[in-house]
Amino acid sequence: MQDFLERILITEEEIQARVAELASRITQDYKDKNLGLIGILKGGVVFLADLTRQIPIPHSYDLVGASSYGSSSTSSGKVIITRDAEIPLSDKDILIIEDIYDTGNTLKVVRDLIEAHSPRSMEICALLWKEKKRAFDIPIRYIGFKIPDVFVVGYGLDFNERYRNLGYIGVLSAYLKTRNE
Ligand code: IMP
Ligand code: MG
């Protein structure tokens, strides 16, 4: 086991199998629509890159940027938009692609941002869904995995900008986490 990890939560094989399942559901659901994927920087990029290549129907993708202030491993609730979509969205059925649904603050802000573009429709796909109490609920149409309320890294998810490159998802070592809170 790598020393920055407590344990591996989801293996690379499990992620790839689930991405293929989600992609096939999305392909089916959007075959008569005008699909546009919107990934959220930076964590959603790896998931978006794998997902888009598993969806054979014609579609576009773009990226929006959102970042939340706070320490490395807790959400502050203050989210700022750092990049807006560049392609027109009003003719598209938008599917927002996010790495993780934690407090939901990011998704709330991004959803409002996308809504301002008046897309034909808008749904959310999140690879991870943390089991926790939230101040508000956001409906997520496609969920990869439900996970416990622990801090995870890998497959786009970072701790101090590191570990995004891992093909799997692991629980960060408690020692590293407490040093930065
Ligand atoms: P939110 O709390 O739902 O707004 O999540 C905000 C952002 O925090 C997510 O998009 C992730 O980039 C990041 N985040 C939340 N939980 C984790 C985690 O367990 N590991 C790494 N990043 C996380
Ligand atoms: Mg982060």
* Global mean pLDDT: 94
What quaternary form is this? single chain
The rough form would be described as globular
Strand order of the largest sheet: 4-3-2-5-6-7
Amino- and carboxy-terminal Cα gap: 24 Å
Class per helix and strand makeup: alpha/beta
Uncertain runs with pLDDT below 50, 5 residues or more? none
- Rg for CA atoms: 16 Å
Bound molecules: inosinic acid, magnesium ion
| Topology, number of strands | 9
For the largest beta-sheet, the strand count, sense and barrel status come to: 6 strands, mixed
Helix content class? 10-25%
Q: What proportion of the residues form beta strands (DSSP E)?
A: 25-35%
The secondary-structure element order is: EHEHEEEHEEEEH
Number of helices: 4
Describe the structure in your own words.
The chain has 4 helices and 9 strands. The two termini are 24 Å apart. The chain has 181 residues and is α/β, with parallel strands linked by helices. The strands form 2 sheets. It has a 6-stranded mixed β-sheet, with helices on both faces. Inosinic acid is lined by residues 43, 68, 75, 99-106, 151-153, 157. Inosinic acid binds next to β5, α3 and β8.
